[in-house]
Design a protein that fits this description.
2 copies of one chain form a homodimer. Chain A has about 450 residues and is of the alpha/beta class. Helices cover about 40% and strands about 15% of the residues of chain A. Chain A folds into 2 domains: about 250 residues, 3-Layer(aba) Sandwich (Rossmann fold), CATH 3.40.50.1100; about 160 residues, Rossmann fold, CATH 3.40.50. The interface between A and B is large, with 41 and 41 residues.
Chain lengths: ~450, ~450
């Protein structure tokens, strides 16, 4: 019998990130200057982002980009992550399908976010910066960035979406333990925060707003740059380690997945997971079905438009061409915090637009039902975000049960739910809501997408 | 360079538990009937515990006991656990010592407790029971037992020490997610609980009291037995998988530890970690220094007496010969919850009494200081319990820095601190206390040890 867990050796940790853009026939559209609507140049971007990260963001051609040795050394603290055969889940579902997942939650940040945080902190340090600023929704990215900054000796200022700051005080303490300064967003520490608080004093915040605050805090101080944990091309580049390790592990055990599933908020997990597989598909070397699973409360892929939009509420960031439901959309306080973003990675948006992948949306309670099924079968308590992928995988496995097909279903378990117990409590108590915007609400939000 | 992490293959998961008692020249003293003060017989014990577990408890002779295939299958969900070279901690301390740790926290229970929980649930199921009752302090054991019962289809009633129940509502939700019934102890659901509440209405509870309640709940109902996560010989037997895997991993990399360190409350982690190494020492095949690290707030080894005592406050359990500070001792609400037990494993107590191992006690703030040093160096946020071992390992590593010795220091990282963020918050805020009982307080508690 095949093993439960396939671990690569440390030598098999990828030496290079894989840049999916090099294999895309239609490249993701460039970021635009919000004032001039012209493509952002390196000179414009380096005021906000670290220089080498800007190079990575703009590079649509280099297929493989070397992972610095210092970053690989940190990866060895928690990578390679296991590829797990979900025998117990298969048995519980009574499906002939083979289910696998790549488990990215076995590190203190609790998710895949650390993969990019380490790289971004490394480049910031290399550039001689004092520190970085960033935002965090559910808290995983902020925790990851705090850990990475602590390791490389950088200051780390985190703007945390207010609803998460209040619902997840423990996340805040993890960040403080790693030396970060954590501020609830919107806050009075920035101009954009002050404006928003004046207009909506009761707002629970959003990722879009926290991004605006973090960017303002970086560009108005010497020696600081802004770092972002999703959406950007450079982030998907770093997250390709997930897919690369998965591919090597599958080759080791002689298995080829038929369906590859990931949850998707800004797209960092899904983009990293599918990258090398999608590359094969784009090059005509293999075929896979790719499915992005998102919440009905924030349905960028399934109900959004493909257009240039702001990544942030304060409109200080460049415009990105992506699936979006409008930067004016302030999502309901949905506990799957990491998926509460109105837009989607330009890379994934282009691929979706080109028909290379599918998307599904799930309600919160059905996602938690899947989470509990998974937790009881496989032991691991999943993050609400990741549970969207679990739900989609279970759906596909149940289809196989009907048809008798022995498909290989592979999903990304991007994180653990140890800091989401308030949400589990609501689910256990039967008090969880299934908020989904109406067509009118959505149309109003989409109306905030600018004409470019 | 040697790898950061050494993983065994699934085939290298031990097939047998190692029973250290078989190699002990002086066996641990038998449990005594609290009424007659005669050694407990199998017939007496099977009313409380599962039958095969009683056999394991009483077996001082069989060196290796087979691990059932169903238990090994579950182990594959999270084992083998990694042996980690703490390169970053070594660098941070500037020590010539080589530091290794065995990381048992990479499962949803957050600690090594799952190793015994799975075995105990398996034997309960095999015996045809409806369910089990147990107690939990910090919550790790209750979580582990909930997970194991969910897997094997058993009911699980958990009495949770009140102070933890209130400080760790999230632990409770994890248990509920795995289908357990969780009750704050002392409670009105048992006679012993009612009595204690009458006498001390404001008590924050203790492990000793929760044990009494869980035992009463098991013996007064059909189809239930009591399960315990520490102290007992059978638990140390199951936890020997930690030491066995560690030993195999060290042999693989050709390294022999000089000093082996574990935190110790009831002794399950320390006893399992050191078992095969201590066996070598007892058989004269190798020499090691063994150090148990405990909190000054509950100093059984360092300030207790070696005597027969009750394991529980209600005095319904058998008497065990052990290092104890008295079953009447109700520890201060110390956040290192898992170490808040007045007694110590009879096996470890005998070995300590025989001069085969050492013990040290640390104050809470110095333990958290060590925890933060470790977290920032190695990434992993450690449990407060485990951080006692980290503190001892750091102390030994700093001694090596002074002497220039390149000793190999090995400690057990028994769990993660994701559910201990209130304690970290206190430490970060500077409001943590260093409660240590005075000589008078301790003498008063020790006076509750019965004359046998």
């Amino acid at each position: 019998m095949e093993n439960y867990r396939t671990y690569l050796t440390e030598e098999e940790i990828p030496t290079h990130y894989y840049n999916l853009r090099a294999d895309m026939p239609t490249k993701p559209a460039p970021l635009l200057n919000p004032g001039t609507h012209q493509p952002m140049t390196k000179d414009e971007l380096v005021g906000v982002f670290c220089e080498e990260l800007v190079d990575q963001e703009l590079d649509n051609d280099t297929r493989f980009i070397e992972i610095p040795e210092e970053v690989r050394d940190y990866y060895k603290n928690y990578r390679p992550s296991p590829l797990v055969r979900a025998y117990n889940l298969e048995k519980k579902l009574g499906t002939p399908a083979k289910i696998y997942f790549k488990f990215e939650g076995n590190n203190t940040s609790g998710s895949h976010k650390l993969n990019s945080a380490v790289a971004q902190a490394y480049y910031a340090k290399k550039q001689g910066l004092k520190g970085v600023t960033t935002e965090t929704g559910a808290g995983q990215w902020g925790t990851a960035m705090s850990m990475a900054c602590s390791y490389f000796g950088l200051e780390c200022d985190v703007y945390m979406v207010k609803v998460s700051y209040e619902q997840k005080p423990f996340r805040r303490e993890v960040m403080r333990t790693y030396g970060a300064n954590v501020t609830a967003s919107p806050s009075n520490t920035t101009e954009v925060g002050k404006r928003l608080l004046e207009e909506f004093p009761d707002t629970t915040g959003s990722l879009g707003c926290a991004i605006s605050e973090a960017v303002e805090s970086a560009v108005t101080r010497d020696g600081y740059r802004y770092v972002l944990g999703s959406v950007l091309n450079l982030v998907l580049l770093h997250q390709s380690v997930i897919g690369l390790e998965s591919k090597t592990a599958f080759e080791k055990i002689g298995v080829k997945p038929d369906i590859i599933i990931g949850c998707t908020g800004g797209g960092s997990n899904l983009g990293g997971l599918i990258a090398p597989f999608m590359g094969e598909k784009l090059r005509g070397e293999a075929d896979y079905r790719f499915i992005g699973a998102e919440p009905t409360s924030c349905p960028s892929f399934t109900r959004g438009v493909f257009a240039y939009d702001f990544a942030d509420t304060g409109h200080v960031c460049p415009l990105a061409k992506m699936y979006t439901i409008g930067s004016g959309y302030i999502p309901a306080p949905n506990h799957a915090g990491g998926l509460r973003f109105h837009g989607m990675s330009p890379i994934l948006s282009q691929l979706y637009h080109d028909g290379m992948m599918e998307a599904v949306a799930y309600k919160q309670t059905e996602v938690f039902e899947a989470a509990e099924t998974f937790a009881n079968a496989e032991g691991i308590l999943p993050a609400p975000e990741s549970s969207h992928a679990i739900k989609a995988a279970i759906e596909e496995a149940l289809k196989c049960k009907e048809t008798g097909e022995e498909k290989v279903i592979f999903f990304g378990l991007s994180g653990t739910g140890y800091f989401d117990l308030k949400a589990y409590e609501q689910y256990n108590d039967g008090t969880m809501n299934d908020y989904t915007p109406t067509d009118e609400e959505l149309a109003e939000a989409i109306a905030t997408v600018p004409e470019v």
